[in-house]
Design brief:
By secondary structure, the chain is α/β, with parallel strands linked by helices. 68% of the residues lie in helices and 7% in strands. The protein has a 4-stranded mixed β-sheet with strand order 2-1-3-4, sandwiched between helices. A two-stranded antiparallel sheet has the order 5-6. Strands 7-8 form a two-stranded antiparallel ribbon. The longest helix is centred in the middle third of the chain and has 35 residues.
Length: 418
């Protein structure tokens, strides 16, 4: 074991002392923020570009009402421009509207039926599919309100009754704890925190798995591995590399986690999102650590085996992409698990070892599954790590003998089968 510890120490110090490690540690949170926080901020500001909307109102009764409703709703990004209905009638006004859309002086436009109170018909003119956001999120609600208020006015409904009927429900979400207690819940914050933790697992596993692959290839191409194997077995060398690089990754993560805890205690917030460590219950915290460690060592071991078989990073591309898909596919399935975390499909997918770090952890964050399922996913991942280590050892020993030859899928399968 002394030789293994020597390899671990060498790999660990080589990485934590490098400039790339320092830069990555400093810029890592900023890069993660670009993937996590920035979309959240942009979601709140998206669609705020100033747009001119043409309105054809042959009856002349509704234009001012629509303007008033949009102002009341805070839709300041829309400028309504009334297109007069002249001697040519509504058809000529529509042609003028379409010409304005084509020459981009008008973003889109609507034609309100003259008998809107009875027919409730509106025709929407646009040039781009993206205009549907303006129609569905801004214009449609405004015209629905105009229609509703107009019909109440025609029916001579008193304002007090109108306000009573137009009232909306007020919701408070309460999470029932395992002990039967109650805890007020903010679903947006809970989901955001879960997504942040999943992104940390995703980025760290992919990044340091690729580091392991590159480190093995570099040592093999420099022929240093042949010198090292004179005093250490291939399995010990591979184990030392995986553990050394893994400890470097854990060091970087520990720095980020410490910074996160410090900022959360200071009450730092980004937009309407506040860092909240109250979300990190013991179950979530323990699960995060376990899935992070098991996920890293599973992928790092597989990446090390691929690196041992290849001579250059270019040779590794054909094997690296399928491995990366093991983390990409569960990210694409997050919505499925989020909608029905206790469904049979979600349960089965979350137990697949390569998917577990993402899908099972999302289930833990959303609606904690039975502990036997969490434990089973850990056991399956551990067994997969042992099998991957055994296969990586075969590839490592065979890869040294294959120096200079370009590996293929046939070679890979043949080595693993022997």
């Amino acid at each position: 074991m002394t030789k293994v510890f020597t390899v671990i120490r060498k790999e660990y110090l080589e990485r934590v002392r490098s400039k790339s490690f320092v830069i990555g540690t400093l810029l890592g949170p900023a890069l993660m923020s670009m993937f996590i926080v920035l979309p959240m901020l942009l979601a709140g500001t998206g669609g705020d570009d100033q747009r001119t909307i043409g309105v054809i109102d042959p009856s002349g009764l509704y234009f001012d009402q629509v303007v008033s409703v949009l102002q009341d709703q805070g839709r300041t990004s829309l400028d309504l421009e009334q297109i007069a209905v002249g001697a040519g009638g509504p058809d000529a006004a529509v042609e003028e509207l379409k010409q304005g859309i084509l020459d981009e002086s008008i973003h889109s436009g609507i034609l309100i039926d003259p008998d809107f109170m009875n027919n409730a018909e509106v025709t929407f003119y646009n040039k781009s599919v993206s205009s549907m956001v303006v129609r569905d999120e801004m214009l449609r609600p405004a015209l629905n309100r105009v229609l509703r208020e107009g019909r109440f006015a025609v029916a001579d409904v008193p304002d007090s009754l109108f306000n009573y009927l137009a009232a909306r429900t007020s919701w408070t979400s309460i999470s029932v704890t395992a002990e039967g207690g109650e805890q007020e819940q903010d679903e947006a914050v809970s989901f955001a925190m879960a997504f942040i933790l999943i992104m940390i697992i995703y980025i760290m596993v992919i990044m340091y798995g690729a580091h392991t692959l590159t480190a093995v290839i570099e040592e093999k191409s420099s022929r240093m591995v042949e010198v090292l194997l004179a005093s250490i077995s291939p399995d010990q060398l591979m184990l030392g590399k995986v553990l050394g690089i893994g400890l470097a990754g854990l060091t970087q993560f520990a720095i980020w986690a410490g910074t996160f805890l410090l900022l959360s205690q200071r009450g730092v917030s980004v937009g309407e999102f506040s860092l909240d460590v109250a979300f990190l219950t013991p179950t979530i915290l323990i699960s995060f650590v376990m899935f992070f460690l098991l996920g890293f060592f599973l992928y790092a071991t597989m990446y090390a085996g691929v690196g041992a078989l290849c001579n250059t990073p270019q040779d590794a591309q054909q094997f690296q992409t399928p491995l990366a898909m093991g983390m990409v596919i569960p990210m694409m399935l997050l919505t499925l698990v989020l909608r029905a975390p206790d469904s049979t499909l979600a349960t089965v997918l979350s137990l697949v070892p390569m998917f577990s770090p993402v899908l099972m952890f999302m289930r833990v964050c959303v609606e904690t599954p039975p502990f036997w399922q969490i434990g089973l996913s850990w056991v399956l991942m551990l067994v997969s790590i042992l099998l991957a280590a055994k296969g990586a050892g075969k590839l490592f020993r065979m890869g040294i003998l294959m120096y200079g030859e370009s590996p293929t899928w046939v070679t890979l399968l043949k080595v693993l089968r022997d």
